[in-house]
Amino acid sequence: MESLRVYGGHYAELGRRFAAWLGLHSTDATAVLEISAAEERGTPLSPARLSERISLSTGATTALLNRLEAAGHITRTREHSDRRVVTLRGGPHIQERADEFFGPLAGRLDAAMSPYPSQLLERFEQFMTDLNTAMDAHLAGQGPAAPHAPGVPEDGRR
pLDDT digit of tens for each residue in the chain (158 aa)? Predict the structure, then answer.
């Protein structure tokens, strides 16, 4: 678990550096990465789903999307038969920029994984899926994050 925590720290640091490299706030870069990753998976995000993924209010997400769209980093389209449904897509240059930034890392990761047999990597992928499922279930059971002052009961009464 310690190694996964360290990996998570590295992942967060890469996100911060990518944001700085693009000249964006880290939340904006996180949104761009979420939009691009969902698009690559074939399950593009709606603004509401993005709002959930990056833990922003709908108003803050709208402001973020306005900034990203104005900069050409994303587009909002109406592809669904219900024209009220908005789909988020990466802008024409964003995948190119992401490939430029993350390409050297992808090469290093490929080299790091190359000595391992595919069966082991498949087992590891299943292990990570199981861990993520457990984390998702835990987070869903907690509900939205809310600060809790020490010494104050959960219901806020004293």
Answer: 899 999 999 999 999 999 999 999 999 999 999 999 999 999 999 999 999 999 899 999 999 999 999 999 999 988 777 767 889 999 888 889 989 999 999 999 999 999 999 999 999 999 999 999 999 899 888 866 655 556 656 555 55
What pairs with residue 150 in β-bridges? none
- Give the whole-angstrom CA distance, residue 111 versus residue 116: 10
Where do the structural domains in the chain lie, given as residue ranges? 2-139
Residues with Cβ within 8 Å of residue 102, at least 6 apart in sequence:
14, 18
Residue closest to 14 by CA, chosen among 5, 26, 23, 2 = 26
For the domain covering 2-139, report its CATH number. Answer: 1.10.10.10
